[in-house]
Amino acid sequence: MAFRPRYTGLIERYQERLPFGDDARIISIGEGNTPLIQLQNIPRVIGKEVEIYAKFEGLNPTGSFKDRGMTTAVTQAVSEGSEAIICASTGNTSASAAAYAVRAGIKAFVIIPDGKIAQGKLAQTLMYGAKVIQIKGNFDDGMRLVKEVVDHAPVTIVNSINPYRIEGQKTAAFEIIDELGTVPDYHCLPVGNAGNITAYWKGYQEYSTDQGALKAVVNKRPIMCGYQAAGATPFTLGYMVDEPETVATAIRIGHPQSWDSAWAAKEQSGGWFDCFEDVKILEAQKMLSAYEGVFCEPASATSLAGALKDIASGKIPEGSKIVCTLTGNGLKDPDTAIAQSAIKPSTVDAELGAVKKAILDSL
Question: Residue 150, Cα to own-chain centre: how many angstroms?
């Protein structure tokens, strides 16, 4: 009998809720099942009685939430006989697409903005062996080119305009409900291309109307809160931004592809959009590291920045149960982390007295 590997990823876990049959060749690297971390110290620091949870997607195989959608998009691409995939990316999508292409035994082409991608993400993409095409333009230019090139080359788009990406990403909402045993009151997310807020809302809608699972939470849905960087904030402005700019490279997007569905999630849930200057985003990133031991990339921390602002103002009332999605690992962008760190390494002689003095002076 031919060897059939045992998969441990999200397609296997939620196959009955995904559009794949038992005979599907699943392309998985063990994605999903990421931790839902209750923040213990930050509520005390801000002096508010709230339950805040961080859904840390930075612990997916390539370090970001993109793996959730990539397992489903590449599984479908392979089932259709595709031999190559393509994406435009600010970094995380390119790393994920490249990894899953390797796993599937197909080629990956990625289009990235020249000089506008964090080094950790570029390193991943190159190590996975993707064909990297740098353009003299931004993500939105890359997205336009990807949509054009599929008419001229035999490649499958794996950006979030691919509906199978959304199918995979919605499973994060399933995991949250499974772990909490209920639906949070508020769900806070960073918003760039807006596929994630679209996917979470889809997941909450599908799970909460399933009479067979967790009947106590049927028809309860969270208020969806989407947060952007002030230099890349089309949802707050209400129109597209041609030259987005922010240190939070993962959400440096001015023409989000899931525009209509993101607005629908906001309106249907009774939620809102807001934006923050880079300094506030970086402050939230440092708070997570300093108080909770959670190291996320800058864009991820936008969700916490938003939650803290709205808790402080009373828009999110005390007693609420809040989930903040942290989309990527802090190691994705080490240069930004090092640059903003106030603590620098000290150098001493390699002998006991010097090391002891360095320790005692710091106590």
Answer: 26
Q: Residue ranges of the domains in the chain?
A: 10-63+165-340, 66-162
Token pair of 241 as six digits: 């931004």
Residue 191 burial by Cβ neighbours in a 10 Å radius (0-12, 13-18, 19+)? buried
Could you tell me the pTM of the whole model? Answer: 0.93
Residue 354 CB neighbour total at 10 angstroms: 13
Q: Rounded CA gap, 64 and 31, in Å?
A: 10
CATH number for region 10-63+165-340: 3.40.50.1100
Q: Which amino acid is at 262?
A: A
Classify residue 183 by burial, with Cβ atoms within 10 Å: 0-12, 13-18, 19+. Answer: buried
CATH class of the 66-162 domain in this structure: alpha beta
CB 224 within 8 A of CB 266: yes
- pLDDT digits 0-9 by tens, 192-237: 999 999 999 999 999 876 655 555 555 689 999 999 999 999 999 9
Which two structure tokens, joined as six digits, stand for 181?
A: 């045993």
